[in-house]
Amino acid sequence: MADKYVYFFGDGKAEGTRDMKNLLGGKGANLAEMTNIGIPVPAGYTISTEVCTYYYNNKDQYPKELEQQVKDALKKVEDVMQAKFGNKENPLLVSVRSGARTSMPGMMDTVLNLGLNDETVQGLIRKTGNARFAYDCYRRFVAMYGDVVLGLKPVHKDDVDPFEEIMDSRKKKLGIEFDTELSADDLKDLVSEFKKAIREHAGQAFPEDPMKQLWGAIGAVFKSWNNERAIIYRKLNDIPGHWGTAVNVQSMVYGNMGEDSATGVAFTRNPATGDKEMYGEFLVNAQGEDVVAGIRTPQELKKLKDIMPDVYKQLGEIFDKLEAHYKEMQDMEFTIQDGRLWFLQTRAGKRTGFAAFRIAVDMVEEGLIDKKEALMRVEPNQLNQLLRPIFDMNQKDELVKSGKLIAKGLNAGPGAASGRVVFNAQDAVEWKKRGEKVILARIETSPEDIKGMDAAEGILTARGGMTSHAALVARQMGKVCVAGAGSLNISYKTRQFEVDGKVVKEGDWISLDGSTGEVLQGKIETKPSEVLQVLIDKTMKASDSKTFNTYQKIMNWADEFRTLGVRTNADQPDQSANAIAFGAEGIGLCRTEHMFFGGHRIQAVREMILSGDEKGRRKALEVLLPMQKEDFIGIFKVMQDRPVTIRTLDPPLHEFLPHEEKEQKEVADALGVSLEKLRAKIESLHEFNPMLGHRGCRLGIVFPEITEMQARAILEAACEVKKEGVNVKPEIMIPLVGHVNELRAQDQVVRKVAEEVFEKYGLKVNYLVGTMIELPRAAITADQIAEVAEFFSFGTNDLTQTTFGLSRDDAGKFLPYYVEHDILPRDPFEAIDQEGVGRLMEWGVEYGRKTRKDLKIGICGEHGGEPSSVEFCHRIKMNYVSCSPFRVPIARLAAAQAALRDKK
Ligand code: ADP
Ligand code: MG
Ligand code: MG
Predict the structure, then answer these.
(1) How far, in Å, is the centroid of ligand 2 from the Cα of 110?
(2) Coil, helix or strand for 648?
(3) Strand-strand pairing, 880-883 and 518-521
């Protein structure tokens, strides 16, 4: 049998299904699926992506079977639609549409009303009795054909489209604003003017032969797979070039037949909030792209209820049917022709983080999906949106009252952002680099603006709806966005916008409320999100916040399925309390050096460092002991019976030294030495490469009295809190160990102190002594180190630094270049380099547990809150990850997803 390249759909039966996205593209597969489940879809056929691949591999040739298969499929369409392609009495018109595996909104081309010429247009007039409509289709077709197939479409933003130019001058001449005001004769004139423009600009005549038109359009769609925009988009979204696009040829339905016709785009749920409501936009007497093109302002879908109640009801029924079938929120295109509803597209809808969580939870409660599915539907990083700041309402109200609410657009990306306004993407990137907060304002955005959108706190556009580029991208990035604020007159040239007589210049502060769509002049302080208000500030009741409810449910489900523990990095009681509120099960890293800076402690620390002998050091340490002890008491009280891993002193000592003369004098006086002598001492502590210098356990080994003091502070604090009946679990962690002997030396110091302390208090505390694994040698000799260590914690910041031989402090100069030029796939300080650093970790886990079967292993580097790294930690069977308090929820969710993927 010959290869099959063409798949028919129509009359309730399709050759494709939704599972055939690779072959039919997303659009084609879903048109087939909708046809099969009885949704009204105009008949048509899909030419598979294999033809696209063939076309590019064979110098723009088609497989030889294609022509016949297209003819056969067209015949079937004609039979269903009771009309004939190219027939002058009863012409069938089609659209020719692109459609890749994943949607690439607006990147490729579509031609509508194909099949019209000077003869068939007469047939269309006779058939419909509507000359205005027929010529409206005809002028649209000639322009689209000229743009898409004959290459007259402007490539750059500033180029003019010849057809738009003709249209605009015609409207101006007639003194009208909208294309709906053009008469049949006007439209007929436009057709001939358009054709003339084609002859002039394209160097060839508009083809009157429908078959020629068809093949021209099919070729143009295949070619559009490799247009500049599409290539850039694929790069940004990791879509491989070899996938190719399918071509959908589909009978036209007409939203431009008059007042009983319309076209629209819709979501089965609100994509900004997740509310279960019919959501979208439509335009009466319009076709295709008119809704998103911003020529006329579309109406809210809800208004359709008043205009066409029956259609609205049917639309709702189909929404329910599609959701029940796909078990997912859908984004759809529909057209109403003379009161009859047709569906032209459906796909899973893009949504904000808020909406994603809401929809996942609601769908579980509606019985559409189960908890596991819900957990896999959301992205851990989207939690940032639920935790993200909102405006201080008082300040906002004040601005509103004083008339600073200057515009309103669509609430396309929720959250609150305040920043200085810039008007192009490059400025946004540069200003951000200088440390400014910026809002990027554009008339509309295009894929070229993506970097600027990423750099901005928020995005503001004057044009475009909920489905515009700005709105889609902002939702994906999780950015604050107000789209389509139509009253703004933005001038790129003068770098300002004007609205109702007010002028906002480049650099002025504005504020965007992405949840309401409001644009305000001036700066507003932001404040914690509802989740934070409930969990941390306790300024809001859980029962008053829907968002909190959603958050809580997802988090509870995540805890049900995850096997990986989640701890936090915290060194203050209040931080620890926050982390517990976020679900932390312990502290994975308590840095003691932060405590050395508080109040007058730094003075004692400096005296300790600078005194020339052990006696002087001990004297200074004695001053520090009670203070450190108090710190730990505070933390143990908050953490109760949860484990608390405390790291002994880690940074190189010179980080604590005085650099200013006044401070140096104070220290010299306290030590009873001269300023010169002190300076010489400071000089002697200087290191060329402090990251590899006298730091970590190397300090405690040369100056055991430091470790002694810290161990005493920890264990005495533990005893004090245990006396109050709390089952404290301190874990003492020795940093930067490379050789087991280093750990052994420190372990002995700690254990000796422990005995003294337990004797003094007359009680015992269960404690552990373990180490960080942050040097390659430690990972490699994990079996030896585990002879002493009772737990491991991977310090992946230093481990990455030392594995790559890459200075964390200096890498900023070249790492971005590396990532941009694909030398490294990602910044290894952001996500664990699984192939390099990760291998050392796997080795460390395996060899550590060879010696000590139940060795407790965690991670406390920055990676502990990064989803792909969390999944890695799960895979290599760590016991827990530890991350900053605000990332604890993200880690919990990522851990649950890792566990669920594991079971699959
Ligand atoms: P895109 O992928 O850019 O959305 P589409 O192929 O979906 O491009 O089509 C562009 C517009 O034309 C959409 O609004 C769509 O609904 C409309 N359209 C496409 N085919 C038809 C058709 N057969 N009848 C009526 N409208 C159509
Ligand atoms: Mg579409
Ligand atoms: Mg370290």
Answers:
(1) 9
(2) coil
(3) unpaired
- Please give the distance, rounded to the nearest whole angstrom, from the Cα atom of residue 691 to the centre of ligand 3: 9
Give residues whose Cβ lies within 5 Å of ion ligand 2.
345
Which residue's alpha carbon is nearest to atom 20 within ligand 1? 95
Q: Which has the closest alpha carbon to 108: 223, 249, 236, 219? A: 223
Mutate to test the pocket of ligand 1, among 95, 114, 342 (most ligand atoms within 8 A of CB): 95
What is the distance between the alpha carbons of residues 420 and 509, in angstroms, rounded to a whole number?
4
Which CB contacts under 8 angstroms, 24+ apart, belong to 714-718?
A: 714/628, 714/632, 714/646, 714/767, 715/753, 715/754, 715/757, 715/758, 715/765, 715/767, 716/629, 716/757, 716/760, 716/761, 717/629, 717/630, 717/631, 717/632, 717/633, 717/636, 718/632, 718/636, 718/765, 718/767
Note the pLDDT tens digit of each residue in 644-675: 999 999 988 888 888 778 888 888 888 788 89
pTM: 0.84
Residues ≥6 apart with Cβ < 8 Å to 801 = 691, 807, 808
| Structure token pair of residue 364 | 């579980």
* Interval between CA 42 and ligand 2 midpoint (Å): 14
131 near 125, Cβ under 8 Å?
A: yes
Q: Counting atoms of ligand 1 from 1, which one is nearest the CA of 44? A: 23
Treating both helix axes as pointing N-terminal to C-terminal, what angle do 661-671 and 601-610 enclose, rounded to 10 degrees?
Answer: 70
User: Taking Cα atoms as reference points, which of 445, 379, 432 lies closest to residue 889?
Assistant: 379
Tokens at 555, concatenated: 């988090």
- The residue to which tokens 């597969």 are assigned: 29
Q: What is the pLDDT of residues 275-327, one digit of tens each?
A: 999 999 999 999 987 776 656 778 999 999 999 999 999 999 999 999 999 99
Q: Alpha-carbon distance 549 to 558, whole Å? A: 14
Which helix (H) or strand (E) segment is 393 a member of?
A: helix 393-401
Nearest to 303, CA basis, from 279, 331, 327: 279
Closest approach atom of ligand 1 to CA 99: 2
Q: Which ligand has the minimum distance to the alpha carbon of residue 569?
A: 3
Which residue in this structure is represented by tokens 């599915």? Answer: 373
Burial of 87 (0-12, 13-18, 19+ CB in 10 A): middle
Q: Alpha-carbon distance 312 to 84, whole Å?
A: 31
How far from chain centre, in Å, is Cα 46? 32
The ligand 1 atom at the shortest distance from the C-alpha of residue 253 is 24
Residues 6+ apart with CB under 8 A from 87: 120, 123
Rounded CA gap, 590 and 731, in Å?
10
Per DSSP, the residues of 563-603 read -SEEEEE--SHHHHHHHHHTT--SEEEEESGGGGTSTTHHH
Residue 160 phi, psi dihedral angles, 5° rounding: -100, 150
Segments in the chain below pLDDT 70? 1-2, 156-158, 292-295, 447, 466-467, 475-476, 478, 598-599
Contacts of residue 821, Cβ cutoff 8 Å, sequence gap at least 6: none
Kind and range of the H or E element at 168? helix 162-174
Respond yes or no: is residue 469 known to be catalytic. yes
Ligand 1 atom 18 nearest Cα: 288
Other beta carbons within 10 Å of 91: 23
**194 burial level (CB within 10 Å; 0-12, 13-18, 19+):** buried
Q: Taking each helix axis from N to C terminus, what angle separates 704-723 and 614-639, rounded to the nearest 10 degrees?
A: 30
Catalytic residue among 137, 719, 860, 883: 860
Amino acid sitting at position 519: V
How far are the Cα atoms of 178, 280, 630, 696, 900 from residue 332, in angstroms, in the given order? 26, 9, 61, 59, 30
Token pair listed for 292: 């998103």
Give the whole-angstrom CA distance, residue 438 versus residue 448. Answer: 18
Q: Report CA(122)–ligand 1 centroid distance (Å).
A: 24
Neighbours of 599 (CB within 10 A): 8
Ligand index nearest the alpha carbon of residue 41: 1
